[in-house]
Amino acid sequence: MAEEKVPSRWMFVVAGFIINLCLGTIYAWSVFRPALQQAPYNLTPAESIVPFSVFLLVFGVTFAFSGRMVGKVGPRKPALIGAVLLGLGYLLSYGIALVPPAALYITVFAFGLIAGTGCGFAYNPPIATVSRWFPTKPGLPLGLTVMGFGLSALITAPVVIFLRDAYGIANTFLILGVAFSILLSLLGSLLKFPPADWKQAPSSASSSRKAWAVNSLDFSTDQMVRTTVFYLTWLIYLVGAGSGLMVIGNIAQIATDVTGLKGELVWMATFAVQALAMANAFGRPIMGKICDMIGPRATLLSMLVLQLASLLALFPYATSPAFLFLAVAIFGAMFGGYLAVMPTMVSYFFGAKNVGPNYGLYFSAYGVGGVVLPMLMSSVLGANPTYGNYVQGFYITAGFTVVGLVLTLIMKPPGIGQDKVPRPEQSATS
What's the fold here for domain 211-418? Predict the structure, then answer.
């Protein structure tokens, strides 16, 4: 195949960024809720969060199924299935206008189950595609790809507010459903793996062999789960992402209860939430690039050390706004970093060919961590949390982070004699 017929591989990064921007609208759910809590829908605050929770749960589960499908048929079909299901979920949510008393059941089924499944199917293909087009230094491209998800709420929330106030919440679902169906279908149809005979041009930066260099062997998922490092890094992902999700779920309360940003200062609490989202988004390409420079192990160590320092030396002293915003910037960036570093690590350790199904299995750690650590923090805080309760919660989370540090110190790349697995396939890009 003539080289000029091969598309620019950065096209897939741009397409993946926009896909993630659409999918990340789930992070703007807080601006959907007020309309659902008003007449004629009249959902309670506890009820209006249920579609959001179901969406995220289904997203995490179906991501793995999408990964296996990507490994068998390529990225395009799963991406198109995701586009159809996500758009359909939003479109069917318009049903609340037809049967307002059933708004809870409609949004749980249409938005939570159907759109959540669509998100799971559409999120994996761009990651797998970019990993295949950037087999030797995937960190920065992957970070830019998933940056769209973290940045989404800052862009889509104002759009949703405008549509909601101008046309009503039901029509907002309808408009977004049409827009997402068209846009995601067009972008998903662009996704494809490199030709079988394609090889990345060699560079001096990728020629030196280090302990963290890209594995020249492609591990299948069955081979990956027979390595020790899979279980170590799965637990590291659980701790790192789970602690980040704990902060995300409580940052507004931390700002008001610990820092005292109430009354005339409540705008600073809102800004803390926005600052966390910005750090989350920009931490992805930054930490992805750092991972390309120093490798997964050193990157994970630095991220866990910074998280630990924030939990021990910043958040407990967040009675000062300066400490709060410094902690938010660091913790948000580190949390976002996991969403770029972990798929990059999977590519480095287990080869670029099977990143879709392999990272699909890894992503379950994100889901488990997002349940365990936030729930643990909630149990520590109780119904009427005090400053001491928050500090206790920070210290307990720091204990989990120490475990993650120890696991990172002892982890080693696979395929160097410590794991007894059948010899993986030689990478076509090596």
Answer: Growth Hormone; Chain: A; (1.20.1250)
Conformational region of residue 42, where left means phi above 0, alpha means psi within -120 to 50, and beta covers everything else: left
- Name residue 345's beta-bridge partners: none
Contact 127, 146 (CB under 8 A): yes
- Please, are residues 136 and 200 in contact by the beta-carbon 8 Å criterion? yes
Domain ranges of the chain: 7-188, 211-418
Q: Give me the amino acid identity at 409.
A: L
Q: Calculate helix-pair angle for 355-381, 387-410, nearest 10 degrees.
A: 150
pTM: 0.82
Which DSSP string corresponds to 4-66?
Answer: GGSPPTHHHHHHHHHHHHHHGGGGGGGGTHHHHTSTTT---HHHHTHHHHHHHHHHHHHHHHH
Phi and psi at residue 39, to the nearest 5°: -60, 145
Dmax over Cα atoms in the chain, in whole Å?
Answer: 67
Task: Identify the CATH homologous superfamily for domain 7-188.
Answer: MFS general substrate transporter like domains (1.20.1250.20)
7-188 and 211-418: identical CATH topology: yes
In tens digits, what is the pLDDT along the chain, a chain of 430 residues?
445 466 788 999 999 999 999 999 988 887 888 899 899 999 988 788 888 888 888 888 898 899 889 988 999 999 999 999 999 999 999 999 999 999 999 999 999 999 999 999 999 999 999 988 888 888 899 999 999 998 888 888 889 989 999 999 999 999 999 999 999 999 999 999 988 776 766 554 444 444 455 566 789 999 999 999 999 999 999 999 889 888 887 887 888 889 988 888 888 887 888 888 899 999 999 999 999 899 999 999 999 999 999 999 999 999 999 999 999 999 999 999 999 999 999 988 998 888 888 998 998 888 888 778 888 888 888 878 899 999 999 999 999 999 999 999 999 888 655 555 555 665 554 4
d(CA 253, CA 349): 39
CA–CA distance, 310 with 357 (Å, rounded to integer): 33
Distance in angstroms (rounded) separating the CA atoms of residues 137 and 258: 41
Find out whether 191 and 132 touch, Cβ atoms under 8 Å.
no
Q: Cα dist. 68→16, 73, 84, 146, 206 in Å?
A: 19, 9, 19, 19, 29
Q: What's the token pair of residue 239?
A: 């701790």
8 Å CB contact between 27 and 280? no
Q: Please report the sign of the dihedral spanned by the C-alpha atoms of residue 397, residue 400, residue 402, residue 405.
A: negative
